[in-house]
């Protein structure tokens, strides 16, 4: 267990057939972001925000206003259709979900849990998220996440401020009035650029990209399964005394990539994390540490426990050969399937479903290799 977690990390075991079973909630789309954040600040404790260390309420409110301003300027769909119940459709303003955590985790441990979970879930994308802590009942301790559905970057860009509604004036009194007023004339319409008193367009600074994140731009059932896998992977990673000693090169997700290709990259990245975590679990047992002086300098810094030199046992070397085999597969974008044929991982001409089946088969082959190793 990493000392930085400040306490023991235990897991709720609800199913004897699974080594780890955690409690989490189905992702839910947010319809009123301002109301959600206000409610959370009223009843929950702010843990962290992804874009700023030691963020406070003012920082969160600023991001919320920036998000809503950007969404209003880029929103293409007109949410004016009235439902049978008399209400109109509302746009999605990010997603929220809840994860149960251990009572022994300190503040540092909670932050590390949240960051590790989001890194696994994002699989290469830049997510903006806010985390709150809440308690329910005698044993319920939860982390409540709000996650932006647009990528977030440190680079600032300017957008033109636009009208979010249509307004009419009375041509006699020049006062604003309703559309059905007999003297009504159009003052401005929804989507018109807002100018300042000098006639120049008013601009706002935003950090969001125009592309929605692929990990949330899917059916809820897929998002739910991805979140479940990420939570379980997070518990495994935080339960380890070391970071993975072997890591694969991640597939980079860019906004200009084909959307289907990005989703394939994301699935591969998530499989990589799962394989790394599983390999690390067994590699730790086969690492023979070489004695060293803890006061030894490395560059200008003292050695840490993560930098302890080691050598692998004979069984550990077999494990490393498994890692090298999959590292080569990820680099070449292909592998030998269970039936002995070559399977492609990013050849989109085969169709996304075929590619995803191939990626899942890669994980099945890894599971068989681990079973043989054990």
Describe this structure in words.
There is one protein chain. By secondary structure, the protein is α+β, with helices and mostly antiparallel strands. It folds into 3 domains: 1-149, BirA Bifunctional Protein, domain 2; 162-201, no CATH class; 240-374, no CATH class. Helix content is 35%, strand content 21%. The strands form 6 sheets. Strands 1-3-5-4-2 form a 5-stranded antiparallel beta sheet, sandwiched between helices. Strands 8-7-9 form a 3-stranded antiparallel beta sheet, with no helix packed on it. The longest helix has 25 residues, at 259-283. Mean pLDDT is 78; it is low at 1-21 and 297-303.
Short description:
By secondary structure, the protein is an alpha+beta fold. It is 35% helix and 21% strand. Helix 4 packs parallel to helix 5 and helix 5 packs antiparallel against helix 6.
Summarize the SSE layout with pairings.
Layout: E1 28-29, H1 33-43, E2 45-49, H2 57-74, E3 95-100, H3 107-122, E4 129-136, E5 140-147, E6 150-160, E7 167-170, E8 176-177, E9 184-188, E10 203-212, H4 220-238, H5 259-283, E11 287-289, E12 297-298, E13 301-302, E14 310-312, H6 314-332, E15 334-336, E16 342-344, H7 352-373
Antiparallel strand pairs: 1-3, 2-4, 3-5, 4-5, 6-10, 7-8, 7-9, 11-14, 12-13, 15-16
Helix pairs in contact: 1-2, 3-4, 4-5, 5-6, 5-7
